[in-house]
Each structure stands twice: as C-alpha cells, then as structure tokens.
C-alpha cells in the first residue's frame, strides 16, 4: 500500500517500521475502497505514522477521545526545516478526527456515552404506532419523529414527564420557530405533528389533553403562488452546465430530472442504477408520498446526460444509488444535497427567486406544461399529485389563459 503512495526509500522505511503496520495498512486499503483520492490517502498515512508511536492499541479496553488527544499532543514530529512549525487548531483537529476514524474502523474506540432523553422511548413507540397501526409514509414518520423529539428536548430541562408539558410550552415553541423563519405552512405541519403525538400520548394515559388546544397559523385556499424560474431560465441554467468535470456531469443529469420530469429531490436521490431501463427507454420512479411506482419515457436528453455521467463522472463504488458524492467517502447523494446544487447554479447566473432550491424546478416544469397546453389533470399525473386541488394552484399562473378571459366581451351578459 505504501509503495503506491510514496517513492522515497527513507519515507517508505518510516512507514514500514512504525508500530501497528497491519492495522494502518488495513485502514488505508479501506479508505482507498471508499474512494479517497491519492492526496487524502497520503495525508491519512502520515497522520497514522506519527501518532502510532504515541498510542497503545494493545492496552486493555477501548481508547477514549481524551487518550487520543493526549497521543496527538505527544506525537513524533518530523520537520523538514530546522525551525519547528507552529501548529494550528485545525491541524490538531485533523489529527484527532483521523485517529478516531482509524480506531472506529478497528473497533477500538470508546464512543462517548450520551444519556438518552427521558422522552426518547415515547417518541420511538409513537413512530412504531405511525408505521404499524396508521400505515403512514416513511417521510411523514421521519418528520414527525424528529420534530417531536426536538420539541421535547427543548422542554426537557424544566419537565420530567409528558403530563407536565402545557399548551403554553407548545405555543412558545411554535412562536420561536415562527420568529426564526418558518413559514405558516411549515408551522401548520409542525403543529399537526405535535397534535398527533399528544393525541397518541393521551390515549395511552401519558399526557393530559392538550392536543385539541394546539393551534397553528391559518392557511387560505390558493393563497400562495408557486414561484420558480421561467423555462427560458431553465434552458439558460442547463446551458451553463456543459462542462466535462465530474461535478458538471452529475449536476446536469440531476437538474434535467428535476426540471423535465418535475421530480422531488427525494425521488431523484432514491434513484437506483436498475431504475433505468435502457432497452425499453423507461425511467422508474419511486414515489414515497403515494407509496407507489411510476414509469416515464426516458427522454433522449435526460438519458444521454445520465449515460455520460455513468461513463465519465460516476465514481466507482459498491453503492447502487445512481447519484453519489464526489468527495470521499463516496456515498449516495442525499435529498438535502439537491437544494445546494440548484441554488449555487442559479446564484452563479444571477437568477433571483424567492426560493432557489430543488423544488423551484418542479414549479418550472408545471408552468412549462401549462404553457404547452396540458390540462391540470395531466400536469397532476406528471407531478404525482394525490389531490387534484394541489394542481389547481398552477391555474393562477396561467397568464395566457387569464389574458384571454380578461379580453372577453361581457357587455351582452350585463
């Protein structure tokens, strides 16, 4: 392994004669399999070399973070010049994190013990209830689980039981979220999650009846407009991603899927290699909100972009997910990573929108279909809407249709 990373004989001798040779080689081989670049592997090898002289892997029990910090602070230092180099905090942290990752790989690191919240068991049971008895989607269960646990953690310091939580605690929490940028729609979703949890808790005698008192900001029918870029701006965005870099190849394929099919970020991140039928030119999409699968014809432009990414951009990996991270460790790209990709690309073009995340391309797709003459039913089917009312909001941005209505001569009806 070291022969691949280093060429100088004295450097190779240092690595081969340092303690714990086998465990260092095993970890470097693991990192290489995870897609770490050559430069990162050299840095990891150097960290393990200098720390191996000050850490004892043979001691009874696992090694704590405090022991890692002591080993890092007392490591051997190899200086190329006579004057010692002043170490930065970031350099020390790099050593600590690298050594901890090595020890975790060896199963020899003592993980810090965090006392679980006194409410954790209640929330886990609530998640099981939503899954087994109510049959809710995984996305809904995850959101409610995380938000309820976050709320309970915020009142954990002053309460020791669910029965002691009051409606005032809930109102204070919702108000705090509202002051920190949460929209009224998001607050309503949060309130629904808390209301559902306290109904569950009350039915099991864990909490008093505060569920019905939880209120959220009202929503008005068709109050908001779905903001998104125009189709001309989408074309401008795609034209700006015509490079041959790994990032450009991946981002172009992602943005085409978001804009052409109007997919959600989570639907794109869930795509697997076998979801693309190259023989039949079919794209298979998993829709978690509807708990179903949907098929689309694989358009040439999208298929070519994906094929080029697979051929020239996708890192070699055992993962079956279509889109992977670029930086090591190589892993599937998460849904949350889609928004920064779109935002940064729009920002580079100077396209100003109220929201510049991945979802704005879904709105752009809907508007483009509407301008092309598709019915609301067809648009709803394309976007995977469960409720036709969800699609009706796009009628408000059908400017051509509204202009035709405005141009009607209504004198005969008066």
Question: If you had to describe this structure to a student in words, what would you say it looks like?
Answer:
The chain has 414 residues and is mainly alpha-helical. 53% of the residues lie in helices and 3% in strands. The chain is built from 19 helices and three strands. It has helices at residues 2-5, 9-17, 21-33, 38-52, 65-73, 89-106, 120-132, 138-154, 167-179, 184-203, 231-239, 246-260, 265-269, 300-312, 338-349, 359-371, 376-383, 388-392, 399-406, and strands at 276-277, 282-287, 292-297. The chain has a three-stranded antiparallel β-sheet, with no helix packed on it. The radius of gyration is 28 Å and the shape is globular. The relative contact order is 0.07. The model is unreliable at 80-85 (pLDDT under 50).
Q: Bin the helical content.
A: 40-55%
Shape from CA axes?
Answer: globular
What gyration radius follows from the Cα positions, in whole Å?
28 Å
Continuous helix count:
19
Major β-sheet profile = 3 strands, antiparallel
Which strand order spans the largest sheet, edge to edge or round the barrel?
1-2-3
What is the terminal-to-terminal distance?
Answer: 88 Å
